[in-house]
């Protein structure tokens, strides 16, 4: 405390000058209309900028909650979409009074880990078994496919990415309906390979590739990508096709996990079929 008072004594003239300057400034502003008006306008501008900055910061931190709510709402709307219902013949099917029976549900989740620069890439999401997620469920974004659930704990799930040599997705050329298989050969995470499309199909750059619906992972019609290049090797009956994935795997925040309600029924049916 003594040092503090010694400091004040040593700087006496400076503080006296500062106090007199402040008093002078207040007197000038109070007794002169022009200066008072200018001071008020300047103060309002500074206050507005400060409040605007505070509001921008507040909105930034609220985006996380807004994105989560939007993702959950999108999942609900996807689940209710007739696109993901199975059409039945009402003349035979009497279980419910409708031509459509729901086949797919969607569970929203946030990505907490992701990789794109390995040969075999995985994602981790913040939903697990207590949220209804099980192995082998398909995972998509609003842009396209992401991967398939590989492992599940109570609160988290590991997703085997499309950017993985083990992942093969049954697809078709949207324009013609011809089937093929998409996988990733490594390298650029934006591009994959489409195989098994015969050369008599008149494909073109820009053609859309969608899921075929011939697996229990993905419904029919989910966008996979577009044809970016293709060629035919001499003597080959199938195209070598490069596609650009519709999903940007380096920019995934929220995903939708697909629950095929009829998966077990289909599995039991196929299990009883004799081996070919």
In terms of quaternary structure, what is this?
single chain
Mean pLDDT: 78
Work out the helix count.
4
Strand content: 25-35%
- Helix fraction? 25-40%
CATH superfamily label of the largest domain: Rod shape-determining protein MreC, domain 1
CATH topology title of the largest domain: Thrombin, subunit H
Radius of gyration: 31 Å
- Contiguous uncertain segments of 5+ residues: 84-98
Structural category? alpha+beta
Run of helices and strands: HHHEEEEEEEEEEEEEEH
Reading side by side through the largest sheet, how are the strands ordered?
3-4-7-6-5-14
What is the terminal-to-terminal distance? 95 Å
**How would you describe the shape?**
elongated
Q: Tell me the CATH architecture of the largest domain.
A: Beta Barrel
Counted up, domains total 2
């Amino acid at each position: 405390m003594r040092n503090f008072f010694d400091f004040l004594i040593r700087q006496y003239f400076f503080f006296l000058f500062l106090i007199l300057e402040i008093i002078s400034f207040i007197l000038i502003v109070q007794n002169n209309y022009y200066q008072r008006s200018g001071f008020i306008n300047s103060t309002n501008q500074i206050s507005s900028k400060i409040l605007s900055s505070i509001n921008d910061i507040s909105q930034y931190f609220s985006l996380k909650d807004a994105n989560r709510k939007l993702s959950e709402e999108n999942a609900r709307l996807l689940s209710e979409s007739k696109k993901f219902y199975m059409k039945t013949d009402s003349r035979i099917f009497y279980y419910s009074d409708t031509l459509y029976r729901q086949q797919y549900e969607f569970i929203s989740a946030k990505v907490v880990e992701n990789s794109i620069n390995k040969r075999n890439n995985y994602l981790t999401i913040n939903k697990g078994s207590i949220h209804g997620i099980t192995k082998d469920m398909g995972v998509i974004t609003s842009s396209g496919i992401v991967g398939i659930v590989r492992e599940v704990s109570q609160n988290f799930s590991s997703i085997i990415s499309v950017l993985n040599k083990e992942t093969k997705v049954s697809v078709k050329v949207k324009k013609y309906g011809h089937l093929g298989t998409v996988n990733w050969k490594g390298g650029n995470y934006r591009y994959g390979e489409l195989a098994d499309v015969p050369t008599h199909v008149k494909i073109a750059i820009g053609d859309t590739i969608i899921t075929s619906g011939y697996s229990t992972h993905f419904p029919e019609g989910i966008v996979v990508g577009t044809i970016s290049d293709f060629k035919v090797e001499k003597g080959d009956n199938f195209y070598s096709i490069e596609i650009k994935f519709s999903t940007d795997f380096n920019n995934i925040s929220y995903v939708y996990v697909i629950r095929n309600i009829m998966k077990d029924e289909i599995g039991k049916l196929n299990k009883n079929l004799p081996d070919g």
